[in-house]
Structure formats: structure tokens, C-alpha cells
Amino acid sequence: MQEDKYTQTSDQAKASPKNTGKLGKKRVGQGVLCLSVGLVLGILGTNTYTTGRLPWELLSSDRALSAADLRKLQYGYQILNDQYIGEVKKGEAVNGAMAGMADSVGDPYTAYLTGAASESLDETIKGSFEGIGAQVTTENGWLTIISPIKDSPAEKAGLQANDIILEVDGKSTKGLSTEEAVKLIRGEKGTEVELKIKRGDQEQTVKVKRDEIPIETVHARLMDQAPDVGHIQISEFSETTYDELVQSLKDLQKQGAKKFVLDVRGNPGGLLPSVLKVANIFLEDGQTILRVEDNQGEEQVYQANSQDLGDFKIQAPLVVLIDEGSASASEILAGALQQSGQVPVVGQNSYGKGSVQTVFPLDKNGKMKVTVAKWLTPDGTWINEKGIQPDIEQSLPDYAKLTLIDTSQHYKAGQQSEAVLNIQKILHSLGYLSEDQVSSRYDQDTVEAVQTVQEETGLKATGEVDGETALRLTQKMQEKIKANDSQLDKAIDVLAQA
């Protein structure tokens, strides 16, 4: 296990803070601050390690477990072990107690990780993982997608931010923790998982084939319609993001880019040191990136600093793109550039996660992920459950939010339902049906439209929508959405006026 890749001391994580209090006075030594929403299906979102002493070694006597508390725990286990009619597995009992302790604080981002969830953290360090590639969290008792990873099986299957995963291979996710649900979804490359998805008021089943997901966090290109504009997508903030971004910026400049779109749509967060270094590229030394407030209310200010965060700087017209899937570290970047750098932010209101987590390894099988602080924008705003408000609001076309087609069903002539209506709306959006042919009834016009799609995509022209046809329709919709990215177009328009 290459543990060192994500092992950093608290001094390294702090980068170049301006102390306005005593942040970390009661903090565990050598902890790493990290910012992310939920888990990736096959990879843990908060991918950091903490080295040094165990948390309880720094507790004051009034906060530590008393001898009576410890006796109570021991006695409870003894009763269970002696009196329970079935078998009591010591390891599972201990893990259950640890999980209950973490759950007791009522924070969705604080959790005890063991088994598959703990192993997922280690997989991050390897540079790739096997799964479907979607960031998830638990909201109101249900597993909810924050965003699919670019080019992942989840994205190719049409999964979107805010889709609710109701069932995994027939098992309900209601009441499951994020970690428990991830155990059901993750698996080996090449295997399939069946997900029951709710989008809006519609429910459908989707089969997703797991694959190996490389952890490449920066994707860059020169825009065809604006050859002086470089479009840079950051999918998450990992240890490699800064180096990837610097190289991408240099490459784009060589190709003629003089303006840039920094796209963090669907980016659920990542490592605090990473986003600090990224923000530093676009800010002048001394400008505030964020403020962090600990559990004592004491504040620490993080500022741009070439000496600690890197001396590569870009002074060029810039726009930041965000959406409802932009969370945590993405919001730090957007807030810092918006408030300190006066960079226009375009898109939709972001997710709204204003807390910081640290992962503490307890032993080889268990880790405790704990919310240790909250972060504020440069002007002191806590965006938790509010998000970053864009300067210029711009949504994607309405068809981008159409419901997925249930790949477990078979649709054919004569049927009439909301699901058929959804298929017709997709066909209309793709230009295969006119608006007056959308009726919710699977008629001859629909049969012929489906046959055309099947002929174009190399399928047997049955005129019926089966799982394979549903997948081809989904792929066509994704291509259309990417080709008609109104948010990116707006960002380019803003840069044209710069």
C-alpha cells in the first residue's frame, strides 16, 4: 500500500495561513484537511490519510471516556456475548459500536469506515478504481448522486446529479449509510449492477457495467468556436490536480489560448491543499482563498502565496463554471476567485457543502472520517446548504433533465404511459418526432422513429425500445447535450466581452 501518496502533515496542509486565532489548539497532530461530498462508487471521496497519534490521546479529561463509560461498554458487550441466543462476532460488534458513535453526532459526513468503504480509500492511492464512477451521498435517508465522473460508466448510462438510487440489485437503499450502499454497488470490472433510479417523479431501472476508472482530474481543450479560449474541466481535487492543471495551461497557451474557462461543474471536492494550490494560480499573493473555523470558533485565514503554494501564475481573462453538482472544494475555488479575484461565475447555484473532514486510521481495517471544521468564503460567508450564487445564471436546455429510459422494460406499439411519453420527448429532442407527435401513446410514428434510430446505430430495426435501444438513445442525448452546452456557450460569450 503506497500510503505516503496522500500522507501530509498539518503544516503542509496549512500552506500559507494567516493566523487570526489558534486553529488546531485541540486538533489531532498531523491531520490533513479534506473537502468532498460523499463517496465515489468504488472510491472514497475524502481521500486523505492522517498520521500521528490517535484522537483520544489529545482529549482533555472532561471530554474523554471515564472509567465508568468504559465499564458500561464492556458490560454491554458481555451481556450480549453471554445472553444473545445466536452467535456474537466480536469484530462486528466493535465495528457496530464505532459506527454508532460516529452516527450519534447526526452529521452525514462523519462516519466510521471499515471493509469495502475503508478499502476504497486505499484504492484512491493506486490511481484508479473499479466501479461505476459516480459521486454519491445520503440525503433524507436515500442514496443520491452528486455527479458522475467524466466518461465513466455512470455518465455513459445517463446518470445525473440529484438522481436518487432507490434500489441496488433489488435491495432498497432506504436508511442505508453511504458506506453500506457503496458496498452493494461497487464490484469488479466487467460485472453489472442494476440500479432503480428516481428522477423527479419518474422511476426506472438502469443496468450499469462496472469498469476501471482512471483518476485523471484535469481535461483541457481549445474551443473550436473560440480558438483563443481554453476550456479546462477539473473533475476533483486530488494530489495530482495542480501539476495536471499547470501542464494543461501551458499546453493551451502554446496552442494560442489567451482566455480560459475553468469548469468545475459536477466536481464534488477533494483535498484542501490541492484547491489552495489551484486557486493560488489565479490570485495575487496576499489575496484570501478561504477562512477555516474550528470547533472552538477560532478562525484561520488561507491566502495566496507563491512561496508555499507554487510560483506558476496566470493573469488572463477567466470565467468559472459551476452547477448543482459543484461542491466543497469546488465551491472554495469559485468563492475565492469570485470574491478575491473578481472572476465572473457562470452557471447554476452550487451544492452547498461548507464543512471540512479529516480521515483518521484506527487500525488496518478501520478509519474514522470526522467533520473537524467549517470553511467560509473570503468575505466570511458560510455557504453550507446555500451554495455559491453565480454572477450570471445559465441553465442547460430542458431536455438535459429528461428522465432515463428504464432499461429493464420493453416498450412497443399500443402501450400508453408516462414512460412512453418520456421516450417520445427524447425522440422529439433528437429530431425524430415533431412536437405534435408526442402523445404518451406508442403509435406508428413512434415505431418509425425508433426504427430510424436503430438503423442509424446498427441495431435490428424492430421499432421497439429494449435495453440496447434505450442505451443508444441515452448516448445520442448525451452527445446532443454536449454539443449544445448553453452554460459553456455563455461563459465564452462573457469572455468575448473581456
Q: Explain this structure to me?
A:
The protein is α+β, with helices and mostly antiparallel strands and 498 residues long. It has 4 domains: 3-60 and 69-120, no CATH class; 131-214, PDZ domain (Pdz3 Domain), CATH 2.30.42.10; 218-356 and 375-397, 2-enoyl-CoA Hydratase, Chain A, domain 1 (Alpha-Beta Complex), CATH 3.90.226; 398-483, PGBD-like superfamily/PGBD (Muramoyl-pentapeptide Carboxypeptidase, domain 1), CATH 1.10.101. It is 31% helix and 23% strand. The chain contains 14 helices and 24 strands. The protein has helices at 10-14, 67-83, 90-103, 115-125, 153-156, 178-185, 241-254, 272-282, 306-309, 329-339, 418-429, 444-456, 467-483, 486-496; strands at residues 17-19, 34-36, 39-40, 43-44, 111-114, 128-131, 134-139, 142-148, 164-168, 171-172, 192-199, 202-209, 211-214, 218-222, 229-234, 259-263, 269-271, 288-294, 299-303, 318-322, 345-347, 355-361, 366-376, 392-393. Strands 3, 4, 7, 8, 9, 10, 11 and 12 form an 8-stranded antiparallel β-sheet that branches. Strands 1, 5, 18, 19, 22 and 23 form a 6-stranded antiparallel β-sheet that branches. Strands 14-15-16-20-21-24 form a 6-stranded mixed β-sheet, sandwiched between helices. Helix 8 (272-282) runs parallel beside helix 10. The longest helix has 17 residues, at 67-83. The chain is flat and about 75 Å long. The model is unreliable at 1-32 and 38-59 (pLDDT under 50).
